[in-house]
Amino acid sequence: MKKTRSKSHGRKITVYKSWKELPCVPVSMPSKGSIGETGDWRTFRPEIDEKKCNKCGICYVYCPDGVVIFKEGAVPTIDYTYCKGCGICMVKCPKKAIEMIRERQ
Ligand code: SF4
Ligand code: SF4
Description:
Elements: E1 2-5, E2 12-15, E3 44-48, H1 58-62, E4 68-69, E5 77-78, H2 88-92, E6 98-102
Antiparallel strand pairs: 1-2, 3-6, 4-5
The protein binds iron/sulfur cluster (SF4) (2 copies).
One iron/sulfur cluster (SF4) binds near residues 54, 57 and 98.
């Protein structure tokens, strides 16, 4: 973990190298909501480049919908039934291993 200064706001932010460094936070688990499967909302889908991924698990921790499936030592997979395509996992990935690809019509 290291402290660095944000370019846009000048505030210090903490950069984590592994999910193990993060404090405990509540994570909601994916389930069918009152308006159905939230993966239908998606315009862009996250795709993980297995060659770039270092299996750190950061995407698993930051996904607000809990749809990144991660087992220690393995490249994560994504449950597209509930992934909304928000792109947070792509922004937080330290290896730039996640690309957002436009869904086909
Ligand atoms: S996709 Fe990125 S954030 Fe997720 S485990 Fe791989 S390197 Fe880490
Ligand atoms: S795009 Fe959003 S909802 Fe989908 S896996 Fe990434 S963080 Fe989770």
